[in-house]
Amino acid sequence: MNRLLKRAGVAVGAIAGLAVAVGLYTKTQPASLDNHATIVDLFGSLHTLDATISQQALAARHGLTPHYDPLTRSVREFQGNLAALEHELSARDRGGKELAATLVSLRADSERRSNAVEHFKTQNSVLKNSLYYLPLAGEQVILEIDGATEHRAAVPAISAAVSKVVQVTLAQNLLGGQAERENTERQIDRLRALEPQVPEKARERYGLLIAHAHTASRLQQVVDPIVRHEVMGAPVSKELTRLERLYTDQFNTALAEASWYRNVLYGWSMLLLAALIVAAVKLRSVYANLERLVLERTHKLNQALQELWGEMALAKKIQTALVPRQFALKDCEVAAVMRPADQVGGDYYDVFEVGGVEWVLIGDVSGHGVPAGLIMMMCQTAVRSVLAANPHIGPDELLALVNRTLTENIERLGEDKYMTISAFKREANGCFKVAGMHQDLLIYRAKSARVERLLAEGTWLGINPDIRTLNPVRAISLEPGDALVLYTDGITEARRQGEMLDFEGLERTVTAHGGEGAEAILGGILETLSGYEVNDDVAAVIIKQLEPARAASESAA
Amino acid sequence: MKLPPARRLFWLGVAVAGSVGCTQGSRDTQASRATSRLVDEPQAISAEPILPLEPLPADPKPLVELGRSLFHETALSGDGSVACATCHDLAKGGQDGRALSLGVGGKLGEINAPTVLNAALNIAQFWDGRAKTLEDQVDGPVQHPLEMGGDWQTIEGKLGENPQYRAAFQSALGAAPSRAGVKLAIAAFERTLITVDAPFDRWLKGDKKALSADQKAGYELFKAAGCVACHQGQNAGGNMYQRFGVFGNYFQDRGKITKADYGRFNVTHAEADRHVFRVPSLRNVELTAPYFHDGSAETLPKAVQVMARYQLGKSLSDDQISKIVEFLKSLTGRTPAAAAAANGAPT
Q1: What's the complex ipTM?
Q2: Annotated active-site residue in B73, B135, B147, B326
């Protein structure tokens, strides 16, 4: 629980540390940095266009450009760029109230100036029409007056007045001063005064001349102030500069703030890095510890395994030690073999003499391995113990007594096992009394050189606690040369290409070698077996009945 | 040997720290991406007050083609009888030859239909300049009860039901038919209606044989008489406003003043703008009779005479007028091939 809490704490700490880093990172990205270059460009082009508009209005006023296309285009571009600037600036709404207010007044001023430019174009066109017409009209009036016959006396004065009005109107438009304006007005008044003396045929053009002179003079007073005050003098430039300064201030502030946050972020990153290094080092030591632990445990396991194997070897040793090496059976030649399938096997045989009675036993615990071996050893001990106490009891009695112990023990072990067994007791006359349910018995009869089969009868050990009445006792007598062949199912169930050796196979081998000695018969069986696959424990005991004399000489030897 | 998790974490940390340090560098690329909006290089100042027409930068073709279809689409009108092209006949100089146009149900309009040819070059749209752009202009006639009498909801519905329009809008704008899309497309089409290659433009560009002697004399008169004070620039007008009746009161003389006669006053409500109109372009003027916002001048000589009297304060002789008219005819350019009529839905 404590460890879980600690881990959760570390995880929360790591997430919080990263979250702070991300938060700091966003602070290092001020909105005002986006499209800063665009805004700077826009300011630049607006300043340029602002100057260009003044310049182009002036050029149009004084006839340097004969059309309004460039002026019109510049005004449109200025308005377009201003809208773009407004869009860029409003996209970040960090500009503050002052910047927003300046933008609003700049837009209003720019709108006013656009209207002034239109007003200028309208009035300037009319002014130009009159102004450019004036010299021509004057010339034509003078020609017409000269050609007239009436009012000849007034001709010089009228001609002079006409020339004068053209001259002063042009001068007024060029110089634009108060004196020039008054001069023009005086000359126009003078022309009007002279009108009654103008010859009839020149009267219409004379009137036009006065009208255009008047228009030129009046519109000079309209157009020039528009250019001077409303176009060139528009506060647009001033507002633009102010706006740019505000924007630059704000940008610098944002930049400073971002760079402060960046430094904090660097510091924080260093801290995180340090934490990471500490974590890495800690993890490393944890892993080193783990590796050492794994090595230690593996070593211990190996040791335990080796010990276990050692014990197994011991068990096998005990088992093989329990199997007799020498067979003291009167007038008989005995050969035997025991080959456990695993380290420890469940097959069992014994040949011994106790209290003057000779016993032969063979059996097999179901299954194999350690539990089977244990049960086999129990059985051997029980048999020896029972017979040590009562060497003269019948084989059925022996089995009943052993069975009681075995059944109890198997039950205690919780093993689901049983044991087949046959017990042979040798009577004084040399024949055997046999009881128990093991494999069928094979008896080689030397007289007929054939094998006799005695079917197994009785019951197994380890199932029923009381088997006293269940194992019938039969007698077997052996003539000299006869051989009793005892075996376990490891032999009959050996397989070759899926086919069992079976009883018949064993029978053939025994028939073939029956005339030979016990060792030879056993050798024949093992030779046959070598061609088969054996998956179970194997045990066999061969008892060859000898001539009593021969047996005597042999026993003497 | 496999990299232990501790070591992987360490390198991850190094990578994170590194990427934080790198953010400073990406700023420069952002700056270089910013659009440069520098002012055009100053053009060589032309000695002539009128400049040759040049085609405008092209819009995407699917948009222009959609605009052409919509321009000829009667579904934009309330009763399905009137298209833009009804009053702005591209074969008749971009207008209908009537003093006042006939709208849905044969209703008589209030004002002379101005030409759509070269309209893209105008300072603003309509006689009173109430629409600043071609796009904004579309709203006017479509919804005007005496013109097309349409409403956008119905139009969007009709176009949305038409699979060909749905496909055309999709390819041009990547969207379903909409009011905004219709306006964009029609404006894009109208920007292609620049009538280049007029004899006068060829003369301006150095082809001395492009004008007749009378036309050249007419041009000199056009300048000397003061016409050029307003009718100047690429579009020979269209780039400014002027009062109708500078010398003398045109409207009093004509009589029967209507609201349309107030001109720009209707937009700005400034007294100075009463009877002020956008100066019309003289491009293709021989094709666009009758003249003026009220369609009162049926012929060019009549229009020139009225202009000389009320705008210039002069009287011109018949000979002068006919020479000026000859010059004006040299302003007729080539109607672009793109303007060739299309009827109804896109194919």
Answers
A1: 0.81
A2: B147
A351's enclosing H/E stretch is: strand A347-354
Instruction: Judge contact between B112 and B99, C-beta under 8 A.
Output: yes
Q: Which residues of chain B lie closer than 8 angstroms to A125, CB-CB? A: 229-230, 240, 242
The minimal CB distance from B48 to the residues A33, A38, A66 is found for A66
* Residue B302 pLDDT grade (very low, low, confident, very high; cuts 50, 70, 90): very high
Q: What is the mean pLDDT of residues A46-69?
A: 92
**A366 near A429, Cβ under 8 Å?**
no
Residue from A397, A411, A532, A522 nearest A464 by CA: A411
Question: With left for phi above 0 and alpha for psi between -120 and 50, is residue B177 left, alpha or beta?
Answer: beta
Q: pLDDT class for B78, splitting at 50, 70, 90? A: confident
Residue whose pair of structure tokens reads 């960046």 in the numeric block: A262
CATH architecture label of B199-329: Orthogonal Bundle (1.10)
Asked if B50's CB is within 8 angstroms of A67's CB, the reply is yes
Lowest mean pLDDT among A21-25, A183-187, A342-346, A349-353: A342-346
- Mean of the per-residue pLDDT values of chain A: 87
CB of B222 closer than 8 Å to CB of B327? yes
Packed helices A203-225 and A96-147: angle between N→C axes, nearest 10 degrees = 160
Is residue B57 reached through a cis peptide bond, with omega within 30 degrees of 0 on the bond before it? Answer: no
- Kindly state the average pLDDT of the residues B128-155: 89
pTM: 0.63
B269: chain A residues, CB-CB within 8 Å: none
CA distance B147 to chain A (A): 29
Q: Is the backbone of residue B133 left (phi > 0), alpha (psi -120 to 50) or beta?
A: beta
Determine contact: B18 vs chain A, CB below 8 A.
Answer: no
Among residues 433-492 of chain A, which lie with CB inside 8 Å of chain B? Answer: none
Cβ-Cβ pairs closer than 8 A, A with B, add up to: 152
Catalytic residue flag (residue B147): yes
Are the Cβ atoms of B37 and A66 closer than 8 angstroms?
no
State whether B34 and A37 contact (CB < 8 Å): yes
Paired sense of beta strands A347-354 and A357-365, if any? antiparallel
The confidence band for A93, taking pLDDT boundaries of 50, 70 and 90, is low
Q: Please determine, for residue A314, whether its predicted confidence score (pLDDT) is greater than 80.
A: no
SS3 A392: coil
pLDDT-wise least confident of A439-453, B17-31, B65-79, B135-149: B17-31
Q: Do B314 and A126 touch (CB under 8 A)?
A: no
Shortest Cα distance, chain A CAs vs residue B105, angstroms: 38
Q: What is the pLDDT of residue A32?
A: 62
CATH topology of domain A323-556: Phosphatase 2c; domain 1 (3.60.40)
What does the pLDDT read at residue B328?
Answer: 95
The verdict on B152 touching A (C-beta cutoff 8 Å) is no
Q: Which of A53-67, A363-377, A511-525, B112-126 has the lowest mean pLDDT?
A: A363-377
CATH number of A34-234: 1.20.58
Domain with CATH 1.10.760.10 in chain B: 61-195, 199-329
Q: Right CATH number for B61-195 from 1.25.40.10, 1.10.760.10, 1.10.1740.10, 1.10.357.10?
A: 1.10.760.10
What's the pLDDT tens digit per position in A360-399? Answer: 999 998 877 778 888 888 888 899 899 988 888 999 999 9
User: CB contact, 8 Å: B317 with chain A?
Assistant: no
- What's the mean pLDDT when you consider all of chain B? 83
Contact A164, A212 (CB under 8 A): no
Residues A38 and A85 sit within 8 Å (Cβ to Cβ): no
Q: What is each CA distance from A254 to A28, A44, B274, in whole angstroms? A: 9, 21, 50
